[in-house]
Amino acid sequence: MTASTGAGSREESASHDVVVVGGGMAGLTAATFTARAGVSTLVLTHGESILRRNAFLENMPGFPAGVNSRLFADMLRAQATRNGAEIQTGRVVDVSGSLDEQFTVTVDADTEAVAIVEKRDSDAAANAGAGTPNGTGRAATTTRLIHADRIIVASWADIDYLDGLHIERRDAGSKTYLDADGVGRTSVPGLYVAGRLTERYHQAVIAAGSGAETAITLIHDAEVPFYNDWVVPEGYFTDRGREVPPGCEEIDATEQGARQAASRAAMREYFAEPHEDVQRTHPSLVDDELGRVERGDW
């Protein structure tokens, strides 16, 4: 439903089980876990993740020779959409409501961010493993009201959009952190936090772990049947007289071979050519608000 207002049009969106605010390391990892658990997941992203400023990732588990940070960010995004998460572009300006009455997220259009995401999605569509139609990165063209049962806050570092919820936070100079219980719950029931806002160490792998931990906390709080997110060989549980626990999956040798072949094909495609995105740096160092470095400098 779309209605006109004095400042433009407002679109009422369908409801989701969870909205993740922030499409960086923590947010996309959280979205992958919630979506795989069957929780309807929408990621709202604005601008670019700080992950893309890295020249190269040397300490990411599973990449013994390191990996291009912008390529890794693309792969993370594709993984989330491939597992069922939806990603939309827009700047969150307000979160209101409660766990009992649902939350309402107000999202403003962001023309520049839309252009960035549309280009990235166009590039990703050419990759064999680039996800599903859910990864179209729908752009915001109006102010939208999005409803959700629960919220995961994984943005950095402006969280003024949470002012109406009177959430407990800690100011530390130019940075603000949200108080949490150690596994992602904030002082507001139904609102969770992951990544840098939890005052964790500023490392990509730690942000990923925080996102996964918060997602699993939310899954349990929502009383979604869930044991672990495991894919195991056929008979791992059933040959011991056990039912396959919720969240787990048994696959036979044929299915295992098919998934391994698809994985190899996707990885070959991702790593076939150098990533074409321009290197980023801190925006204060260049005359470009996104921190893009001139190609001649790299």
Global shape:
globular
Unreliable stretches covering 5 or more consecutive residues: 1-7, 111-116, 130-136
CATH homologous superfamily heading: FAD/NAD(P)-binding domain
Q: Give me the CATH fold name.
A: FAD/NAD(P)-binding domain
Give the number of DSSP strands: 13
- Rg over CA atoms, rounded to whole Å, is 20 Å
State the domain count.
Answer: 1
Instruction: Give the termini separation.
Output: 47 Å
CATH top level class name: Alpha Beta
Q: What labels would you give this structure?
A:
alpha/beta; 5 helices; FAD/NAD(P)-binding domain; 9-stranded mixed β-sheet; 298 residues
Question: Care to describe what's here?
Answer:
The protein has 298 residues and is an alpha/beta fold. It has one domain: FAD/NAD(P)-binding domain (3-Layer(bba) Sandwich). Helices cover 26% and strands 25% of the residues. It is built from 5 helices and 13 strands.
Write the layout of secondary structure elements.
Blueprint: E1 2-5, E2 8-21, H1 25-36, E3 41-45, H2 69-82, E4 86-89, E5 91-98, E6 102-108, H3 111-124, E7 138-139, E8 143-153, E9 169-172, E10 175-178, E11 191-193, H4 204-221, E12 230-233, E13 248-251, H5 253-270
Parallel strand pairs: 2-3, 2-8, 3-4, 4-7, 8-11, 12-13
Antiparallel strand pairs: 1-2, 5-6, 6-8, 9-10
Helix pairs in contact: 1-2, 1-4
Structure in a nutshell:
This protein has five helices and 13 strands.
